[in-house]
Design brief:
heterodimer; A: about 160 residues; mainly alpha; two-stranded antiparallel ribbon; globular; B: about 475 residues; alpha/beta; Rossmann fold; Dihydrodipicolinate Reductase, domain 2; 2 domains; ten-stranded mixed beta sheet; six-stranded parallel beta sheet; 16 helices
C-alpha cells in the first residue's frame, strides 16, 4: 500500500523524525554542491582581466585535465564531447531538482552517475585524492537515497 | 636620508614567523578594546587632526589606523591593494578610490566592500582628493600610468597627504624632479615603489653578503628580465566597457589601445626598460653603492612593430665606486622570450657570485673554488644546497681538455624567506614611517638618483654612442 504522503499544515514538523532532518540536511548539502559547482563552470575572465559570467565562458573541466585525459588510452574519447557539454547543465539541473524536491530520487541517482563518470577519469590520471573525495560524495548520495522516504518540504515527493 | 629598519619579519623559519604573527595579532586584538577605551576616557588621542577639522585619521599604539586613498585601479593598483589587505598594523581603511575607467573602479570598490571598506569612487582626481580629505585621508597610493605620477603626487603632497607612488617616478626626468621638490617643500613622505628595497631577502643579501665583502671585489654585474611574447601582447578590453573618446582625450590618451597599453607608447612611459628594468637597475646602484659613470645601449622594435618603444633593450653601464674602481654592468630586457632563466640581478665578484631574484627558486650564491667561506657558513649566512650545481657535463668534458676552464662552483641559498606578498613589506614600511616607527626605505630623492640611470638608457639607444653621466643628472 502506497505511503500516504499527504501532510496537513497542523502536522508540519510533528512527523519529522531525526531521519527527516538528516535527509533534509543531506539534500541541502548535495543540492548546494551540485548547483554551485555547475555555476562555477560558467565563470571566466573577460578581455579586461576581470571575472565574468556567461555561456561563452563555460568550461566543464580545466584544459590541463582535458589534456591528461586525452593522453590516456582507456579514456573514452567519443563520449568526452557530450559529457563535457552536459556536465555543467546537468549539475545545475539535478541540484535544482534536489533543492526544490522535484524528482528527488532521480536527481540523486543522476548525480551519483555523474560522480561515477568523473571518478573513472580521475582513476585514469591517478588522482587518488580526487577519487577518495568523490567517494565521500557517493557515500552521501547512497545515504540520502536510503533516507529518501523521510523526505519533506518537497514540491513533488514522488520519484 | 637613511633607510630605516625593515618592518617585515626576517623569517629564517616560516613556522616561527607564523606563530609570532598569530601571537602578535591576538595580543593586539586583546589590547585593542582596552586601549581604545582608555584613549576615549582620557579624551586625548595624541594625534593631529586632519586639516579639514574632521575626525582624527590616525591613532597611536595598538589602535593605529591610517586612512588611505588609491589612484589607479588597474592591474598594479590591484596588486598594491591586495598587498595592503594583509597588513594588520597599522590598520588601513580605504576611504576613496580614483580611476578614469569605471570598469576598473567599480571592480575595486566592490572588492574592498567585501573587506568592510567603503571607499567613495571618483573619476576626477581633485574630487577624489577633496572627498578623501573630508574623511581624514592621510595617505595616497598612486598606481596610474607613469605620465600621471608627477602631477598627482605633487597635488597630493601639497594637499597634506603622504604618498606611495609606483615606479618609475615619472615618464620624464623633470617630472621626477618636481616630485622630489614637492616632497622637500611639503615635508610629507614620498615612497617610490621599488619594493625590493624592503624585501628582507634583499636586505639580508645587501648586509651580509655585499657589504660584508663575501664576494670579494665585484668586477662585473648583470641582470635581465626576459618575458615571453604571450606575456607581452596587447592588453584588450570588453567592448561594452570601452571609454568614450572624449574621456580618453580629456586625460591625454589617443585611444583605448594606447590607454590599455600605455607602457609601449612614448607619451605615457619609457617602455620596457623603465617598466621592467627600473626595478633591477635600482638594485645595481643600491647593492654596489655606486653611481653609473657611463652608459651605452642598443634596442629595437624588432618584433612588436606597431608600438613605439623598443621590445628588446641591451645596456652596458660603468659604475664608478668611491675609489674610482669600476664595476661593468650588463642588463637586458627582452619581451619576446622567457628563455634564459627569468628575471634576476647577478653580482660577480672574484670570490663568488650572488644571483638575486624575487623568485626564491633562482636565488643562489656561488663560491669560487679558491674562496674560504667557512666563517660565513658557521654564522648561518648561507645554506648549502643538497643538489650540487655544476658546470654541465659537456662543458666538464671540455674542461678536461682545456686547463683554463674553471672548477665547479659550490652553490648556496639564502637562509631568509619572504612569506608575504612582494609589495607588502614596502607598503608596511611606508605606513610605519607615517606613524614615525621607521624611516622610508626608498624616499623619492634616493629613488631619483637611482632612476637617473634608467632615464639615460633610451637617449643612449638613440645616440648610438656611449653617454656620460654628469653630476647634474643625479641632482634635483
Amino acid at each position: 500500500m502506497a505511503e500516504d504522503t499527504t501532510v496537513t499544515s497542523k502536522e508540519w514538523f510533528r512527523d519529522w523524525t531525526d531521519e527527516t532532518w538528516a535527509f533534509l540536511l543531506l539534500r541541502l548539502w548535495l543540492a548546494t554542491r551540485a548547483i554551485v559547482t555547475g555555476l562555477q563552470k560558467y565563470w571566466g575572465v573577460d578581455e579586461g582581466g576581470q571575472p565574468a559570467f556567461g555561456l561563452k565562458y563555460y568550461k566543464a573541466i580545466p584544459d590541463v585535465m582535458k589534456q591528461k585525459f586525452a593522453a590516456e588510452p582507456m579514456f573514452l574519447s567519443a563520449l568526452a564531447g557530450p559529457f563535457y557539454a552536459a556536465l555543467g547543465p546537468v549539475l545545475i539541473l539535478s541540484g535544482l531538482m534536489l533543492l526544490l524536491g522535484v524528482g528527488t530520487r532521480v536527481s540523486l541517482v543522476v548525480q551519483g552517475l555523474l560522480y561515477v563518470a568523473l571518478t573513472y577519469g580521475l582513476i585514469l590520471i591517478k588522482q587518488d585524492a580526487g577519487v577518495a573525495w568523490l567517494g565521500i560524495h557517493m557515500g552521501l548520495i547512497a545515504l540520502a537515497l536510503m533516507l529518501a522516504r523521510h523526505n519533506r518540504l518537497a514540491v513533488f515527493r514522488k520519484w | 636620508m637613511k633607510s630605516g629598519q625593515n618592518s617585515a619579519r626576517v623569517s629564517v623559519v616560516r613556522a616561527q614567523s607564523t606563530r609570532r604573527d598569530f601571537l602578535r595579532a591576538g595580543a593586539a586584538t586583546a589590547g585593542l578594546t582596552v586601549l581604545g577605551q582608555l584613549a576615549r576616557a582620557q579624551g586625548d588621542t595624541g594625534t593631529p587632526r586632519a586639516a579639514t577639522g574632521g575626525a582624527p585619521a590616525v591613532l597611536k599604539g595598538a589602535d593605529a589606523m591610517i586612512k588611505v586613498g588609491l589612484v589607479g585601479c588597474g592591474a598594479q593598483g590591484g596588486v598594491l591593494l591586495e598587498s595592503c589587505l594583509p597588513i594588520q598594523s597599522p590598520k588601513l581603511q580605504f576611504v576613496a578610490l580614483c580611476d578614469i575607467w569605471p570598469y576598473n573602479l567599480r571592480h575595486r570598490v566592490n572588492y574592498l566592500k567585501k573587506f568592510n571598506h567603503d571607499p567613495s569612487a571618483h573619476e576626477d582626481f581633485d574630487e577624489f582628493l577633496s572627498a578623501g580629505l573630508e574623511k581624514g585621508m592621510q595617505a595616497v597610493i598612486i598606481a596610474t600610468p607613469d605620465v600621471w605620477h608627477a602631477p598627482y603626487t605633487v597635488k597630493a603632497l601639497k594637499a597634506g597627504c603622504h604618498v606611495y607612488c609606483e615606479k618609475m617616478m615619472s615618464n620624464t626626468v623633470e617630472g621626477a624632479r618636481q616630485m622630489v621638490r614637492a616632497m622637500k617643500e611639503t615635508g610629507k613622505l614620498l615612497q617610490i615603489g621599488h619594493q625590493r628595497r624592503s624585501n628582507p631577502r634583499y636586505r639580508f643579501a645587501l648586509n651580509r653578503i655585499m657589504e660584508a665583502g663575501l664576494l670579494g671585489r665585484v668586477v662585473n654585474a648583470g641582470g635581465q628580465w626576459n618575458r615571453s611574447v604571450r606575456g607581452s601582447v596587447d592588453l584588450t578590453w570588453p567592448e561594452k566597457f570601452a571609454l568614450p573618446q572624449a574621456t580618453l582625450e580629456k586625460y591625454g590618451y589617443a585611444n583605448m589601445r594606447e590607454f590599455r597599453n600605455w607602457r609601449w607608447f612614448r607619451k605615457y612611459s619609457g617602455g620596457p626598460i623603465s617598466d621592467l628594468g627600473a626595478h633591477q637597475i635600482d638594485i645595481f646602484g643600491w647593492f654596489l653603492n655606486a653611481r653609473p659613470k657611463t652608459v651605452m645601449a642598443s634596442g629595437g622594435r624588432d618584433y612588436f612593430k606597431d608600438r613605439e618603444w623598443y621590445d628588446n633593450v641591451m645596456v652596458i653601464y660603468e659604475y664608478e665606486h668611491s675609489d674610482q674602481e669600476i664595476t661593468r654592468v650588463f642588463y637586458q630586457v627582452l619581451t619576446t622570450t622567457s628563455a634564459g632563466g627569468g628575471y634576476f640581478e647577478q653580482f660577480m665578484g672574484v670570490d663568488g657570485t650572488l644571483k638575486m631574484s624575487e623568485n626564491d627558486a633562482i636565488t643562489r650564491v656561488y663560491k669560487e673554488a679558491h674562496a674560504d667561506w667557512t666563517e660565513a657558513l658557521q654564522k648561518g649566512v648561507l645554506r648549502p644546497i643538497e643538489r650540487a650545481e655544476t658546470i654541465p657535463t659537456s662543458l666538464s668534458q671540455v674542461s678536461l681538455l682545456d686547463v683554463r676552464a674553471s672548477a665547479d662552483l659550490d652553490a648556496y641559498e639564502l637562509p631568509v624567506v619572504l612569506d608575504k606578498k612582494p609589495h607588502t613589506p614596502h607598503l608596511e614600511n611606508f605606513f610605519n614611517a607615517i606613524l614615525g616607527r621607521e624611516e622610508l626605505n626608498c624616499p623619492a630623492d634616493e629613488a631619483f638618483r637611482s632612476e637617473a640611470a634608467v632615464f639615460k638608457v633610451n637617449p643612449a639607444i638613440e645616440a648610438k654612442a656611449q653617454l656620460k653621466f654628469e653630476p647634474s643628472d643625479f641632482e634635483v
